[in-house]
Amino acid sequence: MLKEIVTSFNLLKNYCEQEAFKGYDPYDGLNSKLFRAIPAVSKNRYARLLWIQTFKRSPVNLRAITGVKKEYNPKALGLFLSGYCNLYQTKPDQKYLDKIYFFAARLLELQNTQWSGACWGYNFDWQARAFFQPKNTPTVVASVFIASAFLDAYEITKDEALLKTARSTCNFILKDLNRTADAKGNFAFSYSPLDTSVVFNASLLGSRLLARVYSFTKENELIDEAKKTVEFCCNFQKPEGSWSYGTLPFHQWIDNFHTGYNLECIADYMKYSGDELYKNNVAKGFEYYINTFFTEEGIAKYYNNTVYPVDIHAPAQMIITLAKLDKFKAYKNVADKVMEWTIKNMQSPQGYFYYQVNKYFSSKISYMRWAQAWMFYALSTYINLESSEQNQYL
């Protein structure tokens, strides 16, 4: 399977480089010049939500005709940065090192400097059911993936400025995010400074970064606060091992890749802290994850109770989850089956991956963050894990 993975990856890599890593996003509809030209509509919450959902769900790409441009998405650049770090670790080549410095420089230019530390948001206004996030509003999710990529780069380059930036992101997490606490003083971080929602994967991502930075700086505050958030989220794990997306009434679904986020974050917390108290949570959660979200034929299900839609983020996250939990070798046959189905059914001849496959129709739109960046990171991780064999292909 390795040769097929490398062939797929090279097609994707060529596509992303040709596009200069800029592209559309499932949620970028509010960047539409047409929509923004009608203030009475663009300022209405329900109109914004409807507009975004129309763009997200339509199998036809409406962006070009409504004035949405291809742009850099900071989180996508962070994932690409981690991907090129994988490539450099696999085959130390100057061209990969050059890309590492390129992405680090672009991300420094794109950071939001209005908060307590280095942080990033998305390149579009975002209306969710729970909150509205103006363009560039920093989120813990985007900021952690980017700061983690800076640490990946730091481990290669030993450039102290990269570690300093990741440590600065901890200030954003600790000082700017809101907290929802339980009776014992454990808590969850909010998604952004502008909301108070409890989304388990988002809070756990904050924990993961605090723990990883702690492994370098040995600051007790970082690991103490990380533990409190891990404890809070593990207390919401269901008996069978799953988590709902969050605590709000309309956040009660259980899905594939956010479950993967939860597991990798708790595993990383234990790795970097030395605190193995949550091994049973991860073990129980992984059994649920691997037995629930992947079919015999290799389809990565989105939700726990239905196959469709098949979303490209799910198979990508599988590789990352297996890697983070050190289960890639044990479940390589499953991973290969999922990757084989995904490449066959969700990669275009041009190299990019489709957004979603549905039962009756599919969305074959190319989304740089949601699809290409995630598959770039996943496939480069797969190649890195098989590093004894694949140098000849890169």
List the topology elements:
Blueprint: H1 2-18, H2 33-36, H3 39-42, H4 45-57, H5 63-66, H6 74-90, H7 94-110, E1 126-127, E2 132-133, H8 140-157, H9 160-176, E3 179-181, E4 187-189, H10 200-217, H11 220-234, H12 256-273, H13 279-292, E5 310-311, H14 313-324, H15 332-346, E6 356-357, E7 362-363, H16 368-385
Helix pairs in contact: 1-16, 6-7, 6-8, 6-16, 8-9, 8-10, 9-10, 10-11, 10-12, 12-13, 12-14, 14-15, 14-16
Report the average pLDDT across residues. 94
Order of helices and strands: HHHHHHHEEHHEEHHHHEHHEEH
- Separation, N- and C-terminal Cα atoms: 15 Å
The structural domain count equals 2
Number of strands: 7
Q: Please give the CATH architecture of the largest domain.
A: Alpha/alpha barrel
Helix and strand composition category: mainly alpha
Strand order of the largest sheet: 5-6-7
Helix content: 55-70%
- CATH top-level class of the largest domain: Mainly Alpha
Number of helices, where a helix is a run of at least 4 consecutive DSSP H or I residues: 16
Could you explain the architecture of this structure?
The protein has 394 residues and is mainly alpha-helical. The protein has 2 domains: 2-22 and 72-393, Glycosyltransferase, CATH 1.50.10.10; 29-70, no CATH class. The protein is built from 16 helices and 7 strands. The strands form 3 sheets. The protein has a 3-stranded antiparallel sheet with strand order 5-6-7. A two-stranded antiparallel ribbon has the order 1-2. Strands 3-4 form a two-stranded antiparallel ribbon. Strand 6 and strand 7 (362-363) form a beta hairpin.
